[in-house]
Amino acid sequence: MTVLRVDTISGIGSDGPVFEGDLKFNSQNFLVLPKGTTTERFPDFGAVDASSARGIFFGGGYSSPTLYDVIDYVTISTTGNAQDFGNLTLARSTTGACSSLTRGVCAGGFDGSSFYNLMDYVTISSTGNAQDFGDLSGIRIHIGGCSNSIRGIFGGGWSPQKNIIEYITISSTGNAFDFGDLTTARFQPASFSSTTRGIFAGGTAPPSNLNTIDYITIASTGNAVDFGDLNNTASATGLSNSTRGLAVFTSGSSNAIDFVTIASLGNATDFGDQTVANREISGSFASSIRGVIGGGSGASTGNVIDYVTIAQTGNAQDFGDLTQQRNRVSGCSNGHGGLG
Predict the structure, then answer these.
(1) Distance (Å) of CA 237 to CA 3, 112, 250, 286
(2) How far apart are CA 71 and CA 324, in angstroms?
(3) Pure H helices in 5-93
(4) CA 256: distance to chain centroid?
């Protein structure tokens, strides 16, 4: 017979008994209970601290048909030029990206003649070349990407415009799984997340640009739901901390930035302006404090990196330069809002 001895029992109520002290067993069977509270044994591995969070820029192109396999990185809390991180498995532009605390994943893309469904991954805190992760369900470019600490989500895309949403488990490798559908098929949406919600905002569905904002619950599966509308109708890139998401417009002559409160519903509000216009699908990422946007199309804008303070509103400021001029870049970080 097993005898359970409890030093003290306190807090008997709606939550059940609370055991204090040591639990001891007198038994012929060997049993060891796990120590510590469930909070201690299952900690919340949140985003990297804002002072050390790192952002990654994947690939891109410039003066077509020139394409790059380059991967750059910056420390988000600083300013200065990007540094070389490594190389993609294949030179390409128009990819989508998502990230966990440790890994960044780059998906899809175009190499000047062919579209791809491949996914690469890197370990954000290190440097080195990307490795193969798996495949999307089909070839896609101009994909929106967002994530929490476990799941990466890819939505939309082109050839032609797609309403597909897929997910991956970032800590593993393998092919993407079906999640659901966007409310409207489109490519080049701004995408960002909190720990629970993923947002896809704006985008293009020829012959029109859209201002539609959709949201999903990352931990579930299912179709996206209407959130509200952007102030602008244009392609965009996105970034967020845990509460506020920014859509940075990246096509035409617009240098506008909109923001939403991710936990709410409703239309976007004007945030400010970028230092330059005509970024053409630039890369973006964030820490809990700062958002960073890099790349562009013009000879004087193709290597520009800007930053904003997410909790405030106002115009962007100069951060530094990419290692090479290029547009159609994707970005991710180990400090964004989906990680807490």
Answers:
(1) 62, 21, 7, 12
(2) 10
(3) 38-41
(4) 20
Residue 280: its pLDDT value, please?
A: 79
Rounded-to-integer distance, Cα 109 and Cα 56, Å: 16
pLDDT tens track for 211-242: 999 999 999 999 999 999 999 888 899 999 99
pLDDT tens column, 296-307: 887 677 899 999
User: What does the alpha-carbon distance between residue 303 and residue 25 come to, in Å, rounded to a whole number?
Assistant: 66
Segments of the chain scoring below 50 in pLDDT: 1-15, 17-25, 27, 29-44
Largest CA distance in the chain: 81
Structural domains present in the chain = 3-41 (no CATH), 54-339 (2.120.10.80)
The residue length of the chain stands at: 340
Model confidence pLDDT, tens digit, residues 35-71: 444 334 334 457 889 999 999 999 999 766 789 999 9
Residue 143's φ and ψ, nearest 5 degrees, are: -95, 145
Tell me the pTM: 0.86
Q: Are 76 and 50 in contact (CB under 8 A)?
A: yes
List 134's β-bridge partners, or say none: 119
3-state SS assignment for residue 67? strand
What is the distance between the alpha carbons of residues 41 and 39, in angstroms, rounded to a whole number?
Answer: 6
